[in-house]
Design brief:
By secondary structure, the protein is mainly alpha-helical. The protein folds into two domains: 7-11 and 17-46, Arc Repressor Mutant, subunit A (Orthogonal Bundle); 51-211, Orthogonal Bundle (Tetracycline Repressor, domain 2). The protein contains ten helices and no strands. GO terms for molecular function: DNA binding.
């Protein structure tokens, strides 16, 4: 018989589900409690407010990203690592997609969360530059230190603004499509296309193709 999931963990999972499908702004603690079939008081016993739930989810998102956004410890990087990094990035973005959709609002509403996110962002940028340098050291990318820095910043800008682009220019439903997020990861890979060493371009192209998703960019609105 499977062990019973503790109420605190159930609250976290229910909140994540509702935030992802309905949008964080549309979900209250009463909604979460009703969805779980528990009293609001039971929820408040574990989390004093919705911000505390969000903080816990942000911590889990950070931990998941920190786990994979690292250079291998005992070997140089190989071209296959590109696909691994991209797929894990996509998985994290999809699992915590409400953070990407509602990030600006969340940070404006919670100064402590905003401060913590800045630390997280700088940590991600630092490790991303190390990873790009690892691909340069392995001869897979041909880049100068300044190009590595620029590519890192551009990649971050694309990833953190991609969902906003989808919600404004592409008008998806409230519940985002995983394939549209996949295209955002492809956009990051596309940024480094011109830096791939000739002998690795075919292998890199296979990774690009696995991430590519068609967008409807050619239809014109009625005037």
């Amino acid at each position: 018989m499977a062990p019973q999931v503790k109420t605190r963990e159930r609250i976290i999972q229910a909140s994540l589900e509702l935030f992802n499908t309905q949008g964080e702004r549309n979900v209250t603690t009463n909604h979460i409690a009703a969805h779980m079939g528990i009293s609001p008081g039971n929820l408040y016993y574990h989390f004093r407010n919705k911000q505390a739930v969000i903080a816990e989810l942000m911590q889990r998102y950070e931990a998941q990203v920190d786990q994979f956004l690292r250079l291998p410890e005992e070997r140089p990087v190989v071209i296959e690592d590109k696909a691994v990094y991209m797929e894990r990035l996509l998985a994290a973005m999809w699992q915590f997609r409400f953070l990407h959709r509602d990030l600006e609002h969340l940070l404006e509403s919670d100064a402590q969360l905003a401060e913590r996110y800045q630390v997280f962002a700088k940590r991600c940028l630092h490790h991303a530059m190390q990873i790009f340098q690892g691909f340069v050291d392995a001869g897979i990318l041909l880049m100068t230190p300044l190009q590595i820095e620029a590519l890192t910043l551009n990649s971050w800008i694309v990833l953190t603004s991609w969902v906003r682009f989808l919600c404004t220019a592409m008008k998806p439903t409230t519940e985002l499509d995983e394939q549209l997020l996949r295209r955002g990861v492809f956009q990051v890979m596309a940024l480094e296309d011109g830096y791939v060493a000739p002998q690795w371009q075919e292998a890199a192209r296979e990774i690009y193709d696995s991430l590519y998703v068609q967008l409807d960019l050619h239809s014109h609105p009625v005037a």
